[in-house]
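Table S2 (text version). Query chain:
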Amino acid sequence: MRGVSDPLSASAAAYDALPYPSLPRAVTQPDRLAVVARLFGLSPAPPSRCRVLELGCSDGGNLLATALAHPGAEVVGVDISPGQVEAGRAAARALGATNLRLEVMDLREASALGTFDYVVAHGLYGWIAPPLQAALLDVVAGALRPQGVAYLGVSVLPGSYPLLAMRELLLRRLAGVVDPADRVRAARATVEALAEVAPPATAGPMRAMRDKVRRSSDAWVRHDLLVEDNHPTWFRDLAGATAARGLQYLADADLPTTLPSTYLDPERVKLFDRLARDPVEREQLLDELTDRTFRRALFVPEGAEVDRKVGAGRLAGLSLVARYRRPEAWPDLALGAHEAFRAEPEERGQAVAAPAELRTRHPLARAALRLVAERWPLPEPVDGLAERARARAAEAGWPTAAPAPEDEPIVAEHLLVAAMRGLVDLWLEPPAFAPTPGERPVASPLARWRAAGGHEVVNVLHQAVPLEPHERLLLAALDGSRDRPALVAELAARAAAGDLTLADGDRPIVDAAERDALLAGVVDRTLAWFGRAALLVG
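Corresponding structure-token output:
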């Protein structure tokens, strides 16, 4: 540890005073990083047997998910805040994550921890002073193994300019406010007032900022909006700084953000391709055209042989989970007709991408994509999918052409397009879970622990799952010791204790028989939904 005058020591005090909990993030998990590396021709370490380091791990919430998902992995996190690290250690003890090690450590001393297959730093780069930014990149470059992958979640320009402008305004107005809670309250009130008085020319951006602040936690306001150091970067500068340390840019962890077609129609993509002179310029232009605020950039050692001609053959051994809607009944479309597989639009940085879509008339490809959607939320292996799709189509009474050698490659090409457009998530080592509840349902230990503690709940796919109060109480009770009648009794007891309100419209339900009948239906419906939400493991 360094002296109290060091900027990191001041930062430690700020995070101890108002902790910033870490959530499991799918894009930082070793399975996601390994999949992207494999698509570009690399041979990353298997997630189940790897070393993972997170710099600026907060309370280890992200790494706890990693450690529980991969008991054979060695998972290490460092943070400058003693209070947050101790909270993470307590959580690891409670959940038996013996492979998770959290250390109170200056990031400049993290080189002593050895080398790693995956190195993660989410957001940290933009929240530290430039000398520390250089030290962070030094540590990342030194810690990465030859086939390793580094994730840098970085605030980027030009999209971050509005946040910087608001930060400067707030810091000026709040100069005399010292207490962290008072500063947060004053910041919220100021943003509300600015949105009210803004003239038409700036009303839209001001209200967007107000809405973001309303949605955000006090920790976000304190540590993102009012942070002492906030230094977003241009992608070209980040690429230059990493290259000087022997690292090369691979891609973004969120693959669709690397494709101009995510934001532009085909004609504009052609024009964009003429404007982009090299890979770095290509990424920089995308940031500028989309007003991107944040990148989830992946880097690998310069000696790693990256092959950017991503082919469908690299999907071999992977599995996929659909992110598009389930299709209607199989016989509803004529053979040879086009079918659209469509996901909802997503916010990627500041830009809102167009709804992801894949349109195809190939019968077997359509059958394969339908089968993947039918299996949701379970992962469907890529290997042998064409054969399974043909069998499923025949079962549904939907004829396909006679088997041919090109079936597997054609289906794989469609799956690769679906992955690059964000229609499916790819997995190297997909997690096991129960899509239907058993006699004595068991929830994911991490989800159960987070539900009981009042935290945001994340499923085994590392996706956030919003819960109603009764759903949170039920999830926390799913330890495998209770059947459905016992779960009804548990919710009834929580209602009697005042933890749960039961009503028919405005009429409170007090009759025991009516209460139990209501709760029995609630338990059945909620358990079924938990299965579809990938929250159950047994």
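Notes on Table S2: The longest helix spans residues 512-532. The chain is about 45% helix and 15% strand.
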